[in-house]
Amino acid sequence: MPRMLDVSDAVRAEIGDEEADRLLAGENTPGSYDCTACRTPGDSEQERTSTVLFVGEETAVLAFAHAGCLPSQVVEVTEAQLQGAVRSISGVARDAAAGTAHSTAPEQAVLGVTSGLVLIEGELHPALVVEPTSPIVRPGSTGTGDDFLPLLIEQGFMPLTELTSVPSVLHGWSVLLVMGQLHAVLQPSVSGGQPVAWWQAHQPLQVTDGWRAAANKHQQVLMFAAPVGSIGRQPREDLLRDSLDKAAKRGKLVGAALPLAGT
User: Fold this and answer.
1) Angle at 241 between CA 114 and CA 261, to 5 degrees
2) Does residue 43 surpass a pLDDT of 60?
3) Sign of torsion, CA 77 83 87 92?
4) Would you say 114 and 234 are in contact if contact means Cβ atoms under 8 Å apart?
5) For residue 89, how many other CB atoms are within 10 A of its CB?
6) In sequence order, which ranges of 58-134 are alpha helices (DSSP H)?
7) pTM above 0.85, yes or no
């Protein structure tokens, strides 16, 4: 029986017309699946389903997602991430109760990324809080200052003096969840092609069920960023929120709403 399947032009170009046609005919498509984004069951015979192709340096893996969670697309990831996804990554170690991961940005500064729920206007929103472990200078600069917030403001993030409303959406950026775990924050490519990773987890970051449910509900994630020493590694969400409020009052916080796994 034909499936209610979406195969984007980008996915078709990668897997070839013959394989794409077989998928659309239902030959190689599982009827039921676990959505690669929200990890809840789906049925390609009953609801629109997206084909999502994860491409590493040497391996490619085809996954399925509710069309409402992810559009059909090609996602470039590291080979290590792809192998981890194939293993279904159970029991990934994480730092702190809220969940913290670290990665290396293009400027070679180490970024700490913490996930947590933030209450704004009576609703819980999924949030990522980014704080470097050392000052970040502008690429090519020989100075010793900290340009982390100015660089983000130039990208479209807004200075925040209080957390009383949800920041505006920053189009072109997105947060990538794979198999219900956090893999990357994506930014627009300078060349106009596929989005590229602004931050990428060394290991996929486990998030709580509540965080994932809120992300699926709002279809976006709030990202807050502050200079080194502004937030610290907070083990509880109430302490994280308190640190965010204090950073905002000191003029040391920027933020934006990023679409969930945006195109």
Assistant:
1) 45
2) yes
3) negative
4) yes
5) 17
6) 79-86
7) no
User: Mean pLDDT across the stretch 238-250?
Assistant: 94
User: Is 48:70 a contact under the CB 8 Å cutoff?
Assistant: no
pLDDT in tens, 169-210: 998 899 988 878 888 898 887 777 778 888 888 777 888 999
| Residues 256/172, Cβ–Cβ less than 8 Å | no
Task: In whole angstroms, give the CA distance from residue 228 to residue 244.
Answer: 13
Structure-token pair, residue 48: 């629109």
Token pair, residue 85, equals 């996804």
Tokens 């039921």 sit at which residue? 32
| b/e code 2-32 from CB counts within 10 Å (16+ = b) | ebebbbbeebbeebeeebbeebbebeebeee
